[in-house]
Design brief:
InterPro entries: Leu-rich_rpt, LRR_dom_sf, LRR_N_plant-typ, RLP23-like. It is found in: Membrane. This protein has 274 residues and is α/β, with parallel strands linked by helices. It has 3 helices and 15 strands. The two termini are 15 Å apart.
Length: 274
């Protein structure tokens, strides 16, 4: 991710207050719910390798309060799991996943975490229970406000059912070089989305992406880097998005130089990256 985009993402997360003030690691307040503890243990059973011992504290015979487990944040008020922060912080790109990443499956048990608002599984060797596709059941986790699946070697079509996650403020599917999408109209169903990265996903058949972008009025950060965009240059002038602060279209094969005039309507743009 571009450093400027990272900075803006932090700003977006802080401004949107994704987690409430009643959130902590479980050091105080209510203990976790037993059924949510079981769901986390079921998720761990789907992991075949954990070289950095990220889930070492997730033990049935260990700490009973799962809110104290590494990577888990709960509500101090009621003990519900609100956040899973399992991204691989030891890898900055796909070439560094070896010997640091979680390996295994993304368990359906996550559906039992029905208060979850923040899910980060980035930069790990994970897949769905029966394929290497993005698990469609994630689209049923309708309370999610933050979803980061970047750097996971998924393949196939990006499921349009992700449009069911109408509360999403941040969606990161970047580094998805084995993924493609032939229709991104579902993005218009995410009315409060502020951060979107689909870098390296094959969008070569899509020509109406500027129109879709215009239908997400809250968007601050957009990265479509290296998405094989070929024929969208005629539509660029239709972008009329006054909230965009960071835009990355680098690495695309536009057939002729883009006229600078299409930036004129992006009055808040701080980090244009054409």
């Amino acid at each position: 991710m571009d450093p400027a985009a990272k900075l803006l993402l932090l700003h977006v997360l802080a401004a949107s207050a994704i987690l409430t003030p009643n959130t902590a690691r479980g050091a105080a307040g209510a203990s976790c719910m037993p059924h949510e503890r079981d769901a986390l243990l079921a998720f761990k059973r789907g992991i075949s390798s954990d070289p950095m011992h990220l889930l070492a504290s997730w033990r049935k015979d260990g700490e009973a309060d799962c809110c104290r487990w590494r990577g888990v944040r709960c509500s101090n008020r009621n003990g519900h799991v609100l956040k899973l922060q399992l991204g691989n912080v030891h890898a900055s790109d796909l070439y560094q996943l070896t010997n640091t990443a979680l390996v295994g499956q993304i368990s359906h048990s996550l559906l039992s975490l029905d208060h979850l608002v923040h899910l980060d599984l980035s930069m790990n060797y994970l897949n769905g229970s029966s394929s290497s596709h993005i698990p469609e059941f994630l689209s049923s986790m309708v309370n999610l406000r933050y979803l980061n699946l970047s750097g996971i070697p998924f393949s196939g079509r990006v499921p349009p059912h992700l449009g069911n996650l109408s509360k999403l403020q941040c969606l990161d599917l970047s580094e998805g070089q084995f993924l493609y999408s032939d229709n991104i109209s579902w993005l218009a169903s995410l009315p409060v989305l502020q951060y979107l990265s689909m870098s390296m996903i094959d969008l070569s058949t899509i020509v109406d992406w500027p129109d879709v972008v215009n239908m997400i009025p809250s968007l601050n950060v957009l990265s479509l880097r290296s998405c094989a965009l070929l024929r969208a240059n005629r539509s660029l002038s239709r972008i009329n998005h006054t909230n965009l602060e960071s835009l990355d279209l680098s690495g695309n094969n536009f057939s002729h130089p883009m006229a600078s005039s299409w930036f004129w309507n992006l009055t808040r743009l701080q980090y244009p990256l054409p």
